Fold:
Amino acid sequence: MTASHISSSLRVLPRLARAASGIALVIALLALWEASARLGWVDSLNWPPFTAVLAALRDGLWSGELPALLGNTLGYMLVGYAAGSAAGIALGLLLGLSPLLMRIVSPLVETLRPIPISAIVPPLILFLGVGDALKIFIVAFSSFFPVLINTVAGVRDGSPVLRQTARTLRLSRAATLRKLVLPGALPAIFAGLRTSLGIALVVAIIAEMVAGASGIGYFIVQAQYAMQPAPMYAAVLCLSLAGYALNRAILRFEKTALPWHGRA
Amino acid sequence: MSRARLVERWLPGTLAVAGVLAAWELLGRGGTLNPALLPAPSVVLATLVDVVRDDALAPPIARTLALMATGYLIACACGIALGVAMGRSEAVHALMEPLVELVRPIPKPALIPPLFLFLGIGLQTMLFIVVLAAFFPVLINTVQGVRGVDPVLLDTARTLRLSRRATVLRVVLPAALPMVATGMRVSLGLALTLVVVAEMLAGENGVGFLILDMQRAFQIQKMYAWLVVLALLGLLLNGAFEWAERRALPWRAHLS
Structure:
């Protein structure tokens, strides 16, 4: 090994140590959790050791209970998300292209938007009951606004020169929309889609907790009432993984859909 | 803006809102809408006036706002502090990033039941959940903002021998402020939403508790009255934030 090899591997070492430090911190915290429960530092029935949570997670996954709950929640969440996002993009394109329509609709939007989404669960229960219709609607409602706002901004930020060029080339309105406006607005639309996806999962859980009836959010509340901390933590862990996976999935989707915008 | 332009700008939207309210009122009076599900706006307004007359308006609002403001401010302070540390130092970033990325994707409402078990059903749990929900957007945006500071600015600070403290306070923070403000705006909405959820699940008071309680007691008119209060609260908070942002970031105002 030459001197330059050694010095370059020496330079890698601190970086490795840094990268390891973060994982070490997580492991240390988990070990602290385990020890605090096993050695009785935290004397509480509600503080199961981490390994007990892992065992509950394994049992839940094995028996199919957790996948079924999660599937239920994610299923209607995705339906609501798709509906809300599609409506947001469609209305956003319209509003972005027509200033008059924007002036008509925007005060309505601005009146509805600041309502905390959790607050409209109780009235919606009156209309839709506590079943899937409620959950789909409320997820769609909350996914709608970020996508709408971002789409409008994306369309409006589109270069006027491009639009004039389209007119010079006598592109039809439909072609201009499809070939110019939509691609130009896509990065902004994706930013809205990403925001909405995070909100969709949160809102789905809130609806399940407040309205009850089914899904993993309801399961967590039930486990709390029944004082069964291990399955409850296992479900939270499961949800955390789902949240992480959803975020990765949309980032991946964004990369394939917007290859020219990848380096941001 | 001239009067004609003001009219042109605001008239269509105002008419649209008025139109929706009028249609709702007419349908309510005509009996098309079931008043047990959706009372007419005038009925909701009358109920709201009753609430104000009974002096019942202020205490729940004060409670909800106090809880929210405390949690929000703690979250912003912690998020900005850790965000600056993570943005400025690679070592701190490497140390904290895995932990942050592990906790961040958890849908925060899912943590309410575990926290009830652990911290008990009470004020500290509700506060904790608000802090947790509002913390991450501020943190993530601060890290990004601090890392995005123009290196020329940092070099200039070094050339002028600014102390580390002065560099952070006078160069890094002002440059990162627009990003930080974006995170804080996201957090504001989250904080209000989570306060309401926490009050629904745990509260014995507060606007969120009242809305769910009135629904369960079938006092539908009161439920809508409180919903209007909450909507106005959200509107006011949002407006106040935008006003503060314009004052603090005048150079950014023309962007939005």
Notes: The mean pLDDT of chain B is 88. The first helix of chain B runs from residue 3 to 29. Chain B touches chain A through 63 residues (CB under 8 Å).
